[in-house]
Amino acid sequence: MALSVAIIDYGAGNLRSAEKAFSRVVAQEGWAGTVAITSRAADVAKASHIVLPGQGAFGDCQAGLCAVDGMVDALTETVLHGGRPFLGICVGMQLMADRGLEHGETAGLGWIPGSVEAIKPTDRALKIPHMGWNNLTFHDRQKNTGSAGRRHPVLTGLNDGDHAYFVHSYAFQCANPADLLATCDYGGPVTAIVGRDNLIGTQFHPEKSQRAGLAIIANFLRWRP
User: Fold this and answer.
1) CATH architecture assignment, domain 2-222
2) Quick one: how far is CA 30 from the chain centroid?
3) Tens of pLDDT along 30-75?
């Protein structure tokens, strides 16, 4: 299994931790291939799997991504038109939305309909940002029916109650319920995973989420949507 994993460097991501986690999974599985941090659009165009990390404010991250020469065009061609597997992490996941409402309104990539809005827990004792470990609840449903469906391939082997590590103040509000794959509870449901077609994104950091996070990374690298 030959892999070429491109982790995009646009000045807004936990790059080294992500690289180490992906490299660890590749080594443990005995796969051939490379895991590389890159800011070159040409590398993204050639990659078998593309990862967009992110941390900080939505607008700053979007501006940083757009400032990388040719990167948004390469992502559009390779991911949207080419169908290459794509994983967004934290703000990298949020950037797939139509817009972010952090410090004003900023247009996102518009890949998954919805907006990124401030978390508003019903329990005022809960602090913002939402930081630390939280349990996942998966939303398995068939599109257009609402009935129970098959677990997304990248989430194979995970179960309700598995925990992941979050650090964020804003959350993805999906316009289409079928794109919401998992939530956590923080004074109400908070989006944890979104996805459609060849796109998937985690609000939490899989590279910091121990067993569940490494399972997601391994499943993502096996994924051929």
Assistant:
1) 3-Layer(aba) Sandwich (3.40)
2) 24
3) 999 999 999 999 999 999 999 999 999 999 999 999 999 999 999 9
Residues 42 and 78: their CA atoms lie apart, in Å, by: 10
Measure the CA angle with vertex 118, ends 114 and 75; round to 5°.
Answer: 45
In sequence order, the 6+-apart residues with CB closer than 8 A to the CB of 31 are: 1, 2, 3, 221
pTM exceeds 0.85 for this model: yes
The two beta strands, 180-185 and 137-138, are: antiparallel
Enzyme catalytic residues: 90, 205, 207
Please report, for the chain, the start and end positions of each structural domain, with discontinuous segments joined by +.
2-222
- What is the pLDDT at residue 25? 97
Backbone angles phi, psi at 194, to 5 degrees: -125, 160
